[in-house]
Structure of DctP family TRAP transporter solute-binding subunit:
Amino acid sequence: MMRKKWGFVLSSLMSVSLLLTACGGGGGQQAAQPAGQAPAESAAPSGDGQSFVFKAGHSLTEDHPYHVSLKDMAKRVEEKSQGKVKIEVYPLSQLGAERELTEGLTLGTVDMVITSTAPVTNFYPKLGVLDLPFLFESRDHAYKVLDGKVGQDILKDIESANIIGLAWAENGFRHVTNGSKVVKTPADLQGMKLRTQENQIHLAAFEALGAKPTPMAWTEALTALQQGVVDGQENPAIVANTYKLYDSKQTQMSLTGHVYSAAMILFSKPVWDKLPADVQTLLAEEAKVAGKEERELMIKMEEESLQVLKDNGMTITEDVDKQAFRDAMKPVYEKFAGQIDQDLLNEILNTK
Ligand code: PAF
């Protein structure tokens, strides 16, 4: 039975050999590239025509749920395929930062990625609706939307950007950190130099708040914080913890929760299209399990992360004037009204 299931038929063998020819042949065991650089050679599946090795990249550390869930997925996939499908997981932007990773998916130079959605919007603009500040009331609201019709339609439709949407995962609610002052209202952010993600809506949001946002890849953010190029940044508590932002001059975290940063497990369509159906099914099923596991780990780690930040001298400010932040975001909704699918936006806002 297993032999039949994994005994690849002639068409599979042909597609793999075509792929290997197109990619210059079996690069599956190449060393990871230095941080911030896209791999020079294709990371397309490789092997002897019966087995596959995929490279999966992300920007976070090995103790972050992005990594843990992908490693667990790799283990299950290897076991279930009896060693014929392997996934190598590269943390710390070794295969590139999130924008580069996403581009790599569209080109077929990166196989698989877990990433926050903000940089993906640059390749699939419909996703921009998720970048709107204060869109989701709660984690449950986000889950209902992403696990419901809206989220599932997006996972299918992102194929139009040459990317296969496998599953939703989570980066978390984003909070502002800085090294100089307690932030409770937008007025406290006036003139503050903040690193933001490379995303037009995030940029406009922080401009509307009176800050001086500087979009850059996460690979550049730590140096920018350490060298004082920026005073602060915004990310979930788990990122602040796993990257020890208290060692990068960050003494304050304000629980602004201004954006729910969803994450996605994505696959390269150019690579996917050459895979046998049973490999696609296995990857699709196990990515869903990984997305679920990742979210569960995120929930578990959140409180723990806030405690670690406190233990390392950071002040966590909870009494943020969220209404003032929401009010300041109205011009952002107006500015992007023409670019955001309003039906989609209403569907999200009306999901209870
Ligand atoms: O700020 C970012 O770029 C993202 O939140 C990060 C840290 C890479 C995680 O997805």
User: Anything to note?
Assistant: The domain at 52-349 is CATH 3.40.190.170 (D-Maltodextrin-Binding Protein; domain 2). Residues 1-47 have pLDDT under 50 and may be disordered. The chain has one domain: 52-349. The first strand starts at residue 52 and ends at 57.
